[in-house]
Specification:
Helix content: 40-55%
Number of strands: 3
Order of helices and strands: EEEHHHH
Strand order of the largest sheet: 1-2-3
Radius of gyration: 31 Å
Length: about 120
Amino acid sequence: MNDIIPEVTMNIPVLLEPIPTGFRASTGAPLNLAVEAPTEDEALTAIQSLLLTKQNAGAKIVELWIPPTTLMHKLTAADHEMLDQVDAAIKENRWLQRAEELGADAAADIVQSLVDMPRV
């Protein structure tokens, strides 16, 4: 490896399971490797050997960074209008709940302020 990029080790999950003839070691995607051997150690050594053979042939395991996307980037104008209506309804419900907590006289005042409030 060169001096600029340090060597990095990687842990790869390997399924090790008993079979009638010994053990099977297998990896999931994207490697999809499997070996069978008489002992656990031999199965793990064999799967490691397959991985090193692929690596020596030029194969690389890399991570690809995908920038995050948010729901807001995908919304249409109609979606925004609907969300504004939902937001207004939530605010109205919060006012009504607060009015109930304050009592009947305060509730009447708050309801009247809601009636007078301009709609979105």
